[in-house]
């Protein structure tokens, strides 16, 4: 019999599961509770009933049916909606996770499974000493990218466990607040600007114990190349649809790992998601630079991004150079005097890079006098039946437009045609060996894209016109302070391509201990014999042989950024009103609609012209409005539409960064731009 006082108390039974490792202690604990009991009180009652003396501070309730954490401990059970049938698990918020870094190394560390992914990534980056965590995110490898590997690995064993770097003793892994490290103005780790190794005074910041220096080196120094056999077993996208699979698994930054079905000891990929690398500085960013370099290297080796044969050889030469330098890295670390001198030199060069504006002494002149280009160029217009009409005209580049005339004398009159380059796609068409310097312009028109090819006579002319076209496509003129640095960057890349045969290197390729198949994609391994590849890589190597390790990595990253497809993340979509699927390319400043069959761009929309975007969560459709009454809508077929929504908001968030307040991140603004309302 139940007494009247107990009957009127509105108590009810709640079965709680406790995630602990103590043998002989029940894991399922029944408690009598009331609806007005707050979550913190429930935790206290549970711990008192368990009677196990341990630190419970990292524990919280996970509601399994609703897939959510009960983190607001002051809320009552009624307010949370908890009833007698709720399955609550009392478990740790920090759990072990395996992360595969861009350099293909796996680290094992404790991560918060209750924080939003954006916050979790920020904590991970503090542990790994990677600045600018907003540029990275976590990626689940999709099933499509694992198929090839599974077929190949039926008779082979899993990689050895010693390849895993265990970082579970760090402050963040222990569930404690992260050491401010490189987010503190007074405690910034300093790296040797030549070798990329951490300075001895800051080694101990990484972790406790003698493994600290080794851990730093693994993350900050490039790894030995993988074998051609291992490369052949890895997933290599062949089509745009294949490339879209690579971007399908990005986690939602506004939800926790547990909410996205990530379990303890699962493996995720830590990758640079947003291709806007802000304020790269060799003195503080050795780990970050190396991981960007490694992500670029693997993207090129696995043909996730297309490049020409000439460019592939440049990338191979820079990689081969790294491997030869790795054996000297210990000697470099010992030369402390040279290191200090190099540090000062690097600081000066960093200052030049960081200013991002070159010489500012002529700012007033830039404002009052917008420069122009005028020269004879060849105009190539694609015709039907694969014929091309090539003719020389007098071209004038002013503001963001190109006009061309029959000759120089007629330049005072009306032009034959005026091309507005704002919002256009600019694609390099260069073969230095063949003295071919072309610029392909895809200019938006009402019914698609208008193709125009310009041919320049030499490298200098090409660099000036190409830089002007790139700036104009972004709505900027040659008066912009970034014009001269852009010209120099293009000339530098052309110089790397412009190698001459070194008789000694070419005549004795047998004496060089190099496996060229490790440095190029499998497509080029099939095209050339090993000796041919070695000789050609050594030719390209002549132009990069004097660089320091970090400089070579930065050159590699710059060359990667110069590729036409750089920074594009692909998704298969169906546009509203269309009867066929298309590919949508998402970049840091634009969206591109691409024909899935041909790979040709159809239309480009710039973020700078975007008025608003939203998602209809019921039909999973993204709708975007641009200036001049242009609006588009599409559904995403290769991934959840939330991923594209977050990409757009993320790039807009990153565009708001400035060096005036570079120490803190406006996390609230990020979630406002990327979170959405489902």
Automatic annotation (TrEMBL):
Compartments reported by the entry: Cell junction; Cell projection
Keyword presence, Nuclease: no
Domain of life from the UniProt record: Eukaryota
GO molecular-function term, one example from the UniProt record: integrin binding
Ranges for domain PH: 378-474
UniProt keyword annotation of Membrane present: no
GO biological process: cell-matrix adhesion; integrin-mediated signaling pathway
Keyword annotations from UniProtKB, A to Z: Cell adhesion, Cell junction, Cell projection
GO CC, alphabetical: cell projection; focal adhesion
Record family assignment: Belongs to the kindlin family.
Protein's name in the database: FERM1 protein
Name of encoding gene: Fermt1
